[in-house]
Design brief:
The complex is a heterodimer of chains A (about 110) and B (about 110).
Chain A lengths: L4 E3 L2 E4 L5 E6 L6 E8 L3 E9 L2 E4 L8 E7 L2 E6 L8 E8 L5 E3 L3 E5 L1
Parallel strand pairs in A: 2-11
Antiparallel strand pairs in A: 1-3, 3-8, 4-5, 4-9, 5-6, 7-8, 9-10, 9-11
Chain B lengths: L4 E3 L2 E5 L4 E6 L6 E7 L5 E8 L4 E4 L2 E6 L4 E6 L8 E8 L4 E2 L3 E6 L1
Parallel strand pairs in B: 2-11
Antiparallel strand pairs in B: 1-3, 3-8, 4-5, 4-9, 6-7, 7-8, 9-10, 9-11
The chains are: A mainly beta (about 110), B mainly beta (about 110).
Chain lengths: ~110, ~110
């Protein structure tokens, strides 16, 4: 298995633009998590899905953020419109039955 | 909100020494996990300890859990330069709450 796949690895955009981050979880994993990591705030859970259903999105900072999981093998995190304070590394992780999370390599987002 | 809190925030030791990191959490858990993050990379799972366990070993790693104090410790014995990374504890269920991490530097 290739592990959790995220794209793009790096994204530089201008304030106000829409940003879409993508994640492909490990096949067979039924839970998927989106995190944001910054120096100031550390690693924050944004939202997680179980069997493609959003379970807890209380970590989503604002309505500008939205996440979808249309099927078991794909999820997106969208920011519209983006702002400079959204600059961070965004991680996707998936989890199977043994409670261990597997993280993707992350997407480094820079909003100018 | 974040539940796990690691301390110290930063730790610097000589190669060969032992490194101990602590984690405190707030609510009841099913299990607690430790992860490592190398600079610029995603987190990698190290070890899981269940709430009914008090100690667990994996190679040079030793984890303890005290549910009465809501705390855990991670001991890395005979540290190596390659152990330089940030270490996070995470509590479950159902979702994972990560602490702020301990930055470990092992000096060759």
């Amino acid at each position: 298995d290739a592990g959790v796949i995220q794209s793009p690895r790096h994204e530089v955009t201008e304030m106000g633009q829409e940003v879409t981050l993508r994640c492909k979880p490990i096949s067979g994993h039924n839970s998927l998590f989106w995190y944001r990591q910054t120096m100031m705030r550390g690693l924050e859970l944004l939202i997680y899905f179980n069997n493609n259903v959003p379970i807890d999105d209380s970590g989503m900072p604002e309505d500008r953020f939205s996440a979808k999981m249309p099927n078991a093998s794909f999820s997106t995190l969208k920011i519209q419109p983006s702002e400079p304070r959204d600059s961070a590394v965004y991680f996707c992780a998936s989890r199977g039955d043994n409670n261990e999370q597997f993280f993707g390599p992350g997407t480094r987002l820079t909003v100018l | 909100s974040q539940q796990g809190e690691e301390d110290p925030q930063a730790l610097s030791i000589q190669e060969g020494e032992n490194a101990t990191m602590n984690c405190s959490y707030k609510t009841s858990i099913n299990n607690l996990q430790w992860y490592r993050q190398n600079s610029g990379r995603g987190l990698v799972h190290l070890i899981l300890i269940r709430s009914n366990e008090r100690e667990k070993h994996s190679g040079r790693l030793r984890v303890t859990l005290d549910t009465s104090k809501k705390s855990s410790s991670l001991l890395i014995t005979a540290s190596r330069a390659a152990d330089t990374a940030s270490y996070f504890c995470a509590t479950a269920p159902p979702q994972f709450y990560f602490g702020t991490g301990t930055s470990l530097t092992v000096i060759p």
